[in-house]
Amino acid sequence: MGNVQLSHVSKRYGNVQVITDLSLEVEDGSFTALLGPSGCGKSTLLRMIAGLEEITAGQCFIDGAEVTDTAPAKRGVAMVFQSYALYPHLTVRQNIAFSLSIAGAKKELQNARVAEVSRMLQLDQLLDRRPAQLSGGQRQRVAIGRALVRDPQVFLFDEPLSNLDAMLRVQMRLELAKLHQDVRTTMIYVTHDQVEAMTLADKIVVLDKGRISQQGTPLELYNRPANKFVAAFIGSPAMNFLKAHVAGKQGNDVSLTLPGDRTATIASRGGNLSESEIEIGVRPEHLRLGQPGNGAAFDGEVRIVEQLGNSTLVYVDTPAGQLIVEGEGNLQVEPDEKVGVVLDAQHAHLFGSDAQVI
Amino acid sequence: MTAATDTAPIAATMSPRQYRTIKALDIGGLIATIVTVLGGICWAFPLYWGVITTLKPEEDVVKPGFQPWPEHFTLDAYTHVIFGTRIGQWYVNSLVTAISVTIIVVIISALAGYSISQLKFPGRRLLWWMILASFMIPVPALIVNHFVLMSQFHLINTWLGVILPQLVYGPVTVIIYKQFFDSVPKEFREAAKIDGANEFQLFFRLYLPMNWGITTALAIITFIGAWNQFLWPFLVATEEPMFNVTVGITQVTDAFGVKYARDLGSAMLAGLPVAIVYLIFQRRVTQAIMLTAGIKG
Predict the structure, then answer these.
(1) What is the Rg, in whole angstroms, of the alpha carbon atoms belonging to chain B?
(2) Which of A141, A215, B121, B142 gives 20 to 30 Å between its CA and that of A346?
(3) How many Å lie between the alpha carbon of A213 and the closest alpha carbon of chain B?
(4) First to last CA, chain A
(5) In a 3-state reduction of DSSP, which class is residue B67?
(6) By three-state DSSP, how is residue A25 classified?
(7) B71 domain residue, yes or no
(8) A260 with A301: CB under 8 angstroms?
(9) Of A77, A82, A83, the CB nearest to B194
(10) Nearest CA distance, A114 vs chain B (angstrom)
């Protein structure tokens, strides 16, 4: 069992409040990603779980036992650092066996565990090398091996792939996913890369200024963002936001007057609608190009076209500002072309002035 | 284009080989090399003169005129120093005290540097400022206190008496260790903490081996410093059998006046271990000197 529970935890450095009254439950065997921009407190939260940072207020439980004031080594956690933190004077074998050696384990046991882990991570051929003689991906695998050898209840990853190049990152992402499938141990993974979080995690916790902004499965966060911050942070290219005037409401359907005086009807999620000015959020793939005129939500002029092969990103200047439209890979459109932008109202979101979804 | 046109007539009067040589000549580098070589000769000449003098008979040494190469070679000076004095005993004294000082200074400095750098305890900052402040106190100012202390502890004319006061001579080693331990990324410490390492394991298995080069460099320079100590061993050892080699060589005198070859011979023998240490660990010594210079600067 390796469930992690944080109950009303706070972290303060002097006058700076980094984490504010945060409660979180990480289920046993799950892969949970802590996602957020730089400075949102995600690494601090991970370090609090690891025991590397004191918890100013609140409690931390691992496997049901309170570990708020327990030393890092006694929490049953293993951590993989962004910089890998491989001891440069030790070989791969010694690095992996370090925790066992510290614990005074017999040489035979150390060798057996190192062999097991190195086989799993394909490090067998590298055991006598030093970290300086390894590539970035290999170092990453050694760091994971060092965590794995401890047989922890919880794995903690602090942006482990951010030092790797794009191709290697994809490869290591797959290896991590496979590792989780194999060991089924609880993993908590800190990242600012939403693609990593979406592809690896079965639960994402989005943090903003030390508070949980939203938590849920990757698709929940993508399809039903709870607020503008999550809506903007998840998804690439980012969601389009535009102001609209509320013309009327029937049930959950809100009639809106768009910039440029055309209208649209978008379903709210049943939230309280008390303002006349609200914000619409729509992802680039939920906009499409059409003929200018009344059939479109906006008329506009193409500014930039980005051909990505599998899709085309079109930046269109409209009365609502510049909107990004994602079309098919073979979309034929030229800069300065007059186009209409059609909005898929079923996939649009409404946000109030408090940036919460309506 | 202009340069090529200007040099063309000159090039035409030379053979291709001469032209290539002239072209490849680095005038600035040549001047720098000549100056450096001259400087080297000026520095090395007294050493050469000293060695040559020890290999001359005493009467040739005092003979008027410049004699850069001995007419007659002899090892009389060395045989006299080796067999006619207590230099063997002085060597033992120097070795014991210098090695002891080196080992103790390195261990204490590494531990002090580690604790100030990595541990959090009350008075840490005060301790650090005290170590920095100890730079301001010249060692000779402490000599009288040291002598009184050693005398009260009945350690005059003992190895311990020679060793103990020298342990406080080098706050620089503590400062260097602290700086190097400070520069170790904190992730190493945190990873080891999660792995279950305690402070001693962190120190002996991580911080010390990761800074092994610094330890070697500091050990060598401490040894050289301790071997070359004169003032304190001269004061604390008043009996000839307890002399260090640096003090002992001042006793190589003769009833009939100064014997230059013998005096220089004893000086050569006294400096030999340091020269050997330097030759073996040249790179480390240079590194250590640069480190200490960096701190002092």
Answers:
(1) 27
(2) A215
(3) 29
(4) 39
(5) coil
(6) strand
(7) no
(8) no
(9) A77
(10) 15
Kindly report, residue by residue over A194-243, the tens digit of the pLDDT. 999 999 999 999 999 999 999 999 999 999 999 999 999 999 899 999 99
Domain residue limits at B20? 2-54
Chain A 149-168, residues with CB within 8 Å of chain B CB atoms: 150
**Do B112 and B40 lie in a common domain?**
no
Q: Which domains does chain A carry? A: 4-227 (3.40.50.300), 240-351 (2.40.50.140)
Q: What is the pLDDT of residues A70-113, one digit of tens each?
A: 999 999 999 999 899 999 999 999 999 999 999 999 999 999 99
Supply the CATH number for residue B193's domain. Answer: 1.10.3720.10
CA distance B207 to chain A (A): 10
Instruction: Give the model confidence (pLDDT) of A30-64 as tens digits.
Output: 999 999 999 899 999 999 999 999 999 999 999 99
Q: Does A98 touch chain B (CB under 8 A)?
A: yes
User: Looking at residue B7, what is its pLDDT?
Assistant: 52
Residue B70, exposed/middle/buried by CB under 10 A (0-12, 13-18, 19+)?
middle
Residue B274 has pLDDT above 90, yes or no: no
Question: In the prediction, which pLDDT does B255 show?
Answer: 57
User: For residues A327 and A288, is the Cβ–Cβ distance under 8 A?
Assistant: yes
d(CA A284, CA A304): 14
Cα A1 to Cα A45: distance, rounded to the nearest angstrom: 21
Say if residue A339's pLDDT is above 80: yes
Residues B152 and B19 grouped into a single domain: no
Number of domains in chain B: 2
Rounded to 5 degrees, φ, ψ at A97 are -85, 0
The answer to whether residues B47 and B103 belong to one domain is no
Strand order in the sheet with A154-158: A77-80, A154-158, A186-191, A31-35, A203-208, A211-216
Peptide bond into B273 cis (omega under 30): no
Residues of B in contact with A51 (CB under 8 A): 194
Region of A138 on the Ramachandran plot (φ > 0 left; ψ -120 to 50 alpha; else beta): alpha
Residue B16 sits in the same domain as residue B117 = no
Burial A147-183 (b: 16+ CB within 10 A, else e): bbbbebbbbbbbbbbeebeeebbeebbebbeebbeee
The interface pTM score, or ipTM, of the predicted complex is: 0.83
A77 interfaces chain B, CB cutoff of 8 Å: yes
Closest residue in B to A89 (Cα–Cα): B210
Q: Give the sheet arrangement for strand A263-267, strand by strand.
A: A263-267, A253-257, A240-250, A277-282, A349-351
Q: Which residue has the tokens 């939500």?
A: A297
**Beta carbons within 10 angstroms of residue B97's beta carbon:** 24
Q: Is position B61 within any domain?
A: no
With 0.95 as the threshold, say if the pTM is over it: no
Tokens describing residue A114: 């190192």
Kindly report the number of other CB atoms within 10 A of residue A258's CB atom.
20
Regarding whether B198 and B162 lie in a shared domain, the answer is: yes
Within a 10 A sphere around the Cβ of A300, how many other Cβ atoms? 26
The answer to whether the CB of A39 falls within 8 A of the CB of A207 is no
B64 falls within a domain: no
Q: What is the largest CA-CA distance in chain A?
A: 79
